[in-house]
Amino acid sequence: MRFSTVIAAGVLFTVLGCGDASSEQAAEDIVDDESVDETQRAGDIIELSGNPLVGATIYAPYCQACHGVDGVGIDGFRLSDVVIVEGTVNVILFGRYTMPAFESILSDQDIADVLAFIQTL
Questions:
Q1: Domain 34-118 maps to which CATH number in 3.40.50.720, 3.40.1190.20, 3.30.1490.190, 1.10.760.10?
Q2: DSSP states of 44-69
Q3: Which residue of 1, 37, 46, 57 shows the fewest CB atoms closer than 10 Å?
């Protein structure tokens, strides 16, 4: 895989031209790193001011069945021990294993509110 990456980079530089500022910018424009966008969005959500009272009302219908009333986990992960980081937000947004994705269901503010509630558990 490393060899193919080197070849791809060589082809990219050959097509775009070698070494000048415009070719470097063009290479950056072509590369679409979704993980950077996801991390940025997760960071933005963490920076929002969440309301734990609102978060509790969102948690009940969407999270409680798996994570339990007190976040101790039923069929889901134990939330009472969760440290809120970008990875935690990405799991909420995009799902993981048996957890569904909530990206198209909850707004960024809704997620911030749920995170604020989780921190009270």
A1: 1.10.760.10
A2: HHHHS---HHHHHHHHHHHTHHHH-T
A3: 1
Q: How far is CA 7 from CA 1, 12, 28, 76, 77, in A?
A: 10, 9, 17, 44, 42
Helix, strand, or coil here: 20?
Answer: coil
What is the residue extent of each domain of the chain?
1-31, 34-118
Report the half-sphere exposure of 22 (CA within 13 A, side-chain side): 3
Closest CA to 93 of 117, 68, 62, 121: 62
